[in-house]
Amino acid sequence: MSTVTETGTGSTSRGNSSVAPQGGSRRSGWQRHRSWVLPVAGAALALVFLAPYIVMLLNSLRPSSDVVQTPPTFFPREWQLSTYSQILTDERFLNWLKTSVIVAGSSTLIVILVSIPAAYYTARFRFPGRMAFLLLVLVTQMFSPTALVVGIYREWFNFNMVNTYAALILTNAAFNLAFAVWILHGFFASIPKEVEEAANLDGCSRFGTLRRVMLPLTMPGIVTAVIFTFIAAWNEYVVALTLMLDESKKPLTVGITSYVTGYEQHWDQLFAAAIVAIVPVVVLFAVIEKHLVGGLTAGSVK
Amino acid sequence: MSTTATQTAPPTRSRKRGPKSLNAGQGRRGVLLVTPTLILLAVVIMYPLVRAVIMSFQKDSGLDPATGMFSEGGFAGTQNYQHWLLQQCAAAGGTTQPCPPGTLGSQFYDALFVTLFFTVVTVFFEIGLGLWFATIMNRTFKGRGLVRAAILIPWAIPTAVTAKLWFFIFAYEGIANKLLGGVGIKPLLWTGDAWPARFAVIIADVWKTTPFMALLILAGLQLISSDVYEAAQIDGASKWQTFTRITLPLIKVPLMVAILFRTLDVLRIYDLPAILTNGGGGSGHATTTLSILVINQIRAGFNSASALSTLVFLLIAFVAFIFVRFLGADVVQRPPGKEAAKRRWFRRQPVAAEGE
């Protein structure tokens, strides 16, 4: 698993190598190199994974004819920024963007409003069926909209809600609820009860305690749940594809695929739209990245 | 958050006072707090699930192809399942015939194969690469945070966008073929021929989700104390022994969780093959997964689509069951996140209290 650089060269070049135990000299050789080898390896790795997206960014900055011209060049032969202004004034695109914002935003709001009370209650009180409730929530996380899409479509069809934001919002909210409940449950459970009791003694009502003490303390968990839900709802494709048949009500993920079809090939617009579509998630992701890693590891490290 | 918890004195949960005092009078009102969650899950997840199962046992209402008369549908028995599993398509006179090639019904076993093939191959590569990247990210070096954030960005990007991007990369005169040309390999019809199309999907999926796998594995690696490795080194363990005898067993649970999540994800993969290769390639359905087949079938008949989606659901549930039952029951008892933390913490309480 480890490194190529930990070879003997380092130890032989060092004067004390014959005296020092082998392990020590090996480490010192590695030590000398690790300061630059690891960052370089890490950067190379990151670059490899980001390369396709760099291609995407560069392609959004050149005219469509240049995108498909062969042989492909790395840097644009001709730079063009106007695609972005074209996209951002295109009514089709603005409608998709609007749908994505409304749907992802509302789903997130619902998830938070619904999951906080449930997580708080299950973390604080033992009640009959508590474990069953938590397991039920967990099991629903194993379901995906893709496997249930027929039933979901049928249901919203019966309620006459196909092509409505509400249907897509509720669907997204439900499928992300499990994660939010679980992560918040953990955060609430990790706050000692004494904190709450102290607030109680100081004359805080139960709701006041939740609002003034518990919520601020669990803020990292809430932020993680918010952003995770937002990203998932923003990226959702299958349900939106089946439910939102109206062109103007499609979200970005479904909409932007229509820039390049068998009939039209607006590569520049596709890539510019894709860049606009990923900016919110990448920015939000950068905010929670630490919490996400922390959230997955925190408990066990302690 | 965790800092607050650790800095405060550990709560003394004495049996007498314990949960009961807070519970008194809270029970009924408390249920109200859980109700919205239950309602949402019931309406959006449970109802469609049950509904789909019921529909899968019903006949399509519509024009009967045999008689040209409108038929109401009604109970179909296991007809819809036979349609998929035994490849029986409706024929004139209410009888059945083997599904002719080209129909959606005839694609079932191909789709099942493609789905399982994608699952095994992508998860295999994602574990391997994920382990490797996780060990790199687990070391401390300058700029580690930046690398970690950068490597995980692809995971946050919509699959639809990724798929279009790879569609561009895999174009005949695109970047992939140019790179292949650089090492002297003839250009491939990536999205046209069956096997290249399948591998195009696999490459794109591995590229996109390996970082997520690495993140989950990294979470496990960070639990391992460096003492353990030092002890192994003193005992003269080789790198490989250290990895197989120490690292792997110690990250078993998070690794299993990661594999379970990814497996369930790939089993229902839709957007990547649907957008990247349009489910096509070669014979026309070389990358049609079960989920793509379900969506295609929706337009052709709800009830048989329900039967198919129920089959997909059963497959996923079965795989999940296998994982939980044979590979580590901990997956359900200790899901990723805090439940594990909570338990461990409470278990530790008495010890901490005695120590004081």
UniProtKB/TrEMBL annotation, chain A:
Domain ABC transmembrane type-1 per the UniProt entry, residue ranges: 97-288
Biased segments, Low complexity type: 1-18
CC terms in the record's Gene Ontology section: plasma membrane
Biological process terms in GO annotation: transmembrane transport
Transmembrane portions of the chain: 36-55, 101-121, 133-153, 165-184, 213-234, 270-288
Membrane topology: Multi-pass membrane protein
Region of interest (Disordered), ranges: 1-29
Keyword Mitochondrion part of the UniProt annotation: no
InterPro entries referenced in this protein's UniProt entry, alphabetically: BP-dep_ABC_trans_perm (IPR050901), MetI-like (IPR000515), MetI-like_sf (IPR035906)
Xref: PROSITE patterns: ABC_TM1 (PS50928)
Chief location: membrane
Location in or out of the cell: Cell membrane
The organism's place on the tree of life at top rank: Bacteria
Record key words, sorted: Cell membrane, Membrane, Sugar transport, Transmembrane, Transmembrane helix, Transport
Keyword Transmembrane helix: yes
PANTHER family, A to Z: INNER MEMBRANE ABC TRANSPORTER PERMEASE PROTEIN YCJP, MALTOSE TRANSPORT SYSTEM PERMEASE-RELATED
Family: Belongs to the binding-protein-dependent transport system permease family.
Protein name listed in UniProt: Multiple sugar transport system permease protein
UniProtKB/TrEMBL annotation, chain B:
Primary localization: membrane
Subcellular location: Cell membrane
Keywords: Cell membrane, Membrane, Transmembrane, Transmembrane helix, Transport
Region (Disordered): 1-24
Transport is among the record's keywords: yes
Domain of life: Bacteria
Membrane topology: Multi-pass membrane protein
One BP term from GO: transmembrane transport
Gene3D superfamilies associated with the record: MetI-like
GO cellular component: plasma membrane
Membrane spanning residue stretches: 30-50, 111-134, 146-172, 199-221, 242-261, 307-328
Family: Belongs to the binding-protein-dependent transport system permease family.
Protein name: Carbohydrate ABC transporter membrane protein 1, CUT1 family
